[in-house]
């Protein structure tokens, strides 16, 4: 078993389904929070579980530099290292390496680049990027690609696309030969010990309860009942929480299925040239992957252009395979892309913005540093059911941020991640009910043509 995709409901181009990975079920469309260095900055894993995060993204380039693939591999891969039983996806390192600009050199064989940490020289090829991702042991790994810069001449885009296609073949070949080397065996032995301790009534038993919370959020653990009462949830969101079928989470503490392997996804490139996007999609599908990503977007192009390229590309991807749009977007955008038939998305925006005091709410974006919140005793978002909005006032959050308290980053991130996850829950629920897909603010996205 690697990863299996089950399509369960559609509405127009939008789809709701399940991605069954060796480390749990992921309901789609899904937003994947980014844990660059095997950590969603500021938020502990048990809290991510409580928020209902079913899959995380980690960055190969960063982990390769620090703490190094071999260290992670010896700790049982990312699942063992970061004590995260649920699904993980790693990027190939391609995008990050290409973001280094001055520090990289590309040839047919691969990319030579300099570390942003100490300037040391390194080399990634399709083979070494796959070896790194097998060592890191995420459930879903990505083919090594060249992310074409923007703007770029058509001939340059074509050459880059051809290189990505050759690298996709090399990525797949290496992956097929080495996929048995994923370090989940180490996880299995460690986790068996944990299961044994849990059975004996050890401290891990508590963690089992928290881990099994799945989509059902725990009630706020205290705080003002008054403020909780004010933080009422919109009807469709409340439905989304309770209306979805319970998700059978594969408990990774029970041995991962014997012979389970990672799933390697291909990446469609082709810059902003719609016919090249189509060609890239068709030829990547010919190589054959269990899932397909749309890469090379969010590289500085206007948002309208991104939307156009996604819409033109997604129609050439197979309906029975998961579709992953890399590196997007705002809450409005992720709703829009789900409506177009995208199943998976990731972005640093909710977590990075949170650390800068920018919070997404049903009433729009809030900059919590503003003086207007100094004595605002209302919840951050009266329609959000997260533990932050259920407990703290805007005044307190503003104070924490202004005082540079570590807690500000934690609470802001918890809210923003909650907001994104709730947005996707509502989207999934709408698709299943055949309803119009709405953003949490109540502003509906454009109807399907
Ligand atoms: Zn909230």
Written description of the protein model:
The longest helix has 28 residues, at 406-433. Helices cover 41% and strands 15% of the residues. Strand 1 and strand 2 form a beta hairpin. Helix 6 (126-136) crosses helix 7 (154-178) and helix 7 packs parallel to helix 12 (274-287). The chain has a domain at 4-214 and 249-347: TIM Barrel, CATH 3.20.20. By secondary structure, it is an alpha/beta fold. The protein has 17 helices and 16 strands. An eight-stranded parallel sheet has the order 4-14-13-12-11-10-6-5. The structure holds zinc ion (ZN). Zinc ion (ZN) binds at residues 380-381, 384, 386, 388-389, 415, 418.
Annotation keywords:
eight-stranded parallel sheet, binds zinc ion, 449 residues, three-stranded antiparallel sheet
Tertiary shape: globular
Gyration radius over CA: 21 Å
For this entry, what is the oligomeric state of its chains?
A: single chain
Strand content: 15-25%
Strand order of the largest sheet: 4-14-13-12-11-10-6-5
Number of strands: 16
Structural class: alpha/beta
Mind sketching the topology for me?
Layout: E1 4-11, E2 14-21, E3 24-28, E4 30-32, H1 45-51, E5 55-58, H2 60-65, H3 69-74, H4 77-81, E6 87-90, H5 94-98, E7 104-106, E8 111-114, E9 121-124, H6 126-136, E10 140-142, H7 154-178, H8 184-199, H9 204-211, H10 225-230, H11 235-243, E11 263-268, H12 274-287, E12 292-294, H13 303-314, E13 323-325, H14 331-339, E14 344-346, H15 349-355, E15 358-361, E16 364-367, H16 394-402, H17 406-433
Parallel strand pairs: 4-14, 5-6, 6-10, 10-11, 11-12, 12-13, 13-14
Antiparallel strand pairs: 1-2, 2-3, 7-8, 8-9, 15-16
The structure holds zinc ion.
């Amino acid at each position: 078993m690697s990863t299996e995709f089950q399509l369960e409901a559609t509405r127009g181009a939008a789809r709701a389904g399940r991605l069954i990975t060796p480390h749990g079920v992921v309901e789609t469309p899904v937003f994947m929070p980014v844990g660059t260095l095997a950590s969603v900055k500021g938020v502990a894993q048990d809290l991510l579980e409580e928020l209902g995060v079913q899959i995380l993204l980690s960055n190969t380039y960063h982990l390769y530099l620090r703490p190094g693939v071999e260290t992670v591999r010896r700790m049982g891969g990312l699942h063992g290292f970061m004590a995260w039983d649920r699904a993980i996806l790693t990027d190939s390192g391609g995008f990050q390496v290409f973001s280094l600009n001055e520090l990289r050199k590309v040839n047919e064989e691969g990319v030579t680049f300099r570390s942003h940490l100490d300037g040391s020289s390194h080399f990634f090829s399709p083979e070494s990027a796959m070896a790194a991702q097998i060592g890191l042991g995420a459930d879903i790994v990505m083919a090594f690609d060249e992310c074409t810069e923007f703007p770029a001449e058509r001939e340059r885009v074509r050459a880059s696309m051809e290189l990505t296609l050759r690298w996709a073949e090399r990525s797949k070949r290496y992956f097929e030969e080495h996929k048995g080397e994923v370090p989940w065996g180490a996880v299995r032995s460690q986790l068996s010990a944990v299961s044994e301790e849990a059975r004996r009534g050890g401290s891990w038993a508590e963690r089992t309860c928290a881990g099994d919370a799945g989509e059902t959020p725990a009630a706020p653990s205290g705080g003002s009942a008054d403020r909780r009462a004010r933080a009422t949830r919109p009807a469709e969101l409340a439905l989304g929480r309770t209306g979805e079928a319970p998700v059978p989470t594969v408990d990774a503490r029970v041995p991962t299925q014997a012979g389970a392997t990672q799933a390697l996804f291909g990446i469609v490139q082709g810059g902003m040239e719609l016919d090249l996007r189509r060609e890239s999609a068709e030829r990547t599908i010919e190589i054959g992957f269990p899932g397909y990503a749309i890469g090379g977007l969010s590289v500085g192009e206007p948002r309208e252009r991104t939307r156009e390229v996604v819409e033109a590309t997604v129609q050439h991807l197979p309906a029975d395979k998961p579709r992953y749009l890399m590196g997007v977007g705002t809450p409005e955008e992720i709703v829009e892309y789900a409506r177009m038939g995208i199943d998976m998305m990731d972005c640093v925006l909710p977590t990075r913005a949170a650390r800068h005091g920018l919070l997404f709410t049903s009433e729009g974006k809030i900059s919590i540093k503003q003086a207007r919140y100094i004595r605002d005793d209302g919840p951050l978002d009266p329609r959000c059911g997260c533990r932050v909005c259920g407990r703290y006032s805007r005044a307190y959050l503003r104070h924490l941020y202004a005082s540079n308290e570590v807690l500000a980053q934690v609470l802001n991130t918890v809210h923003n991640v909650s907001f994104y996850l709730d947005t996707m829950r509502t989207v999934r629920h709408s698709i299943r009910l055949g309803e119009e897909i709405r953003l949490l603010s109540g502003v509906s996205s454009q109807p399907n043509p």
